[in-house]
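May I ask you to comment on the folded chain given beneath this request?
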Amino acid sequence: MGSVIGDILPVALGVAISPVPVIAVILMLLAPQARAASVAFMVGWVAGVTVVVTVVTMLVQPSSTSDTSGPSTVASVLQLLLGAAAIVLGVLQWRSRPKPGDEPSLPTWMAAIDRMTAGKALGLGALLSAANPKNLTLCLAGGAIIGGTDLSTTDTVVVLVVFVVIASSSVVVPVLAFLLAHDRMQEPLDDMRRWLTANNATVMSVLLLVIGVAILGKGLGGL
């Protein structure tokens, strides 16, 4: 189990460090309806990550009659495809980064975040975690890594929980910190938002390229 956790750590961290959802939750925390919207967004994010990685884990798990001495062929092929997809996304992200002197821009839908209700925030959290191409690729890769092993049911659940906790930490931690220390969190959150806005493309491109190569190598090793 320890080796599998080691394999999923960089992938889960890649999901956690995705700047767009972090910026989204920070904007919610700075909005008038901060508490309700941010908690709903957090729940949607955790649910989306959990569903995707769990479903993929169940689909690629070796059957009880198969050889479980190594990763299944399905899991290895899936890792190859997802590793290649992550590399392509990383290259596209790098090419889309702001040129020197350009003003970094955010998606237009973020302008409406400060007026977002709890219900819409819940849906947005699930959408960004489960439908965003970059996060979806990484969550699918995490599920493929976990499902491609011969862990027991209990160990599989533990590894899934570890993945979800790490992947959700960048959304969960700011929300909980805000709820516990509202006044002290205003300025640090605003500083974080500005830094992530300026470095969004660069951060994600480097992460996707590094993680993509790691997933690709793991897939090749399993064939």
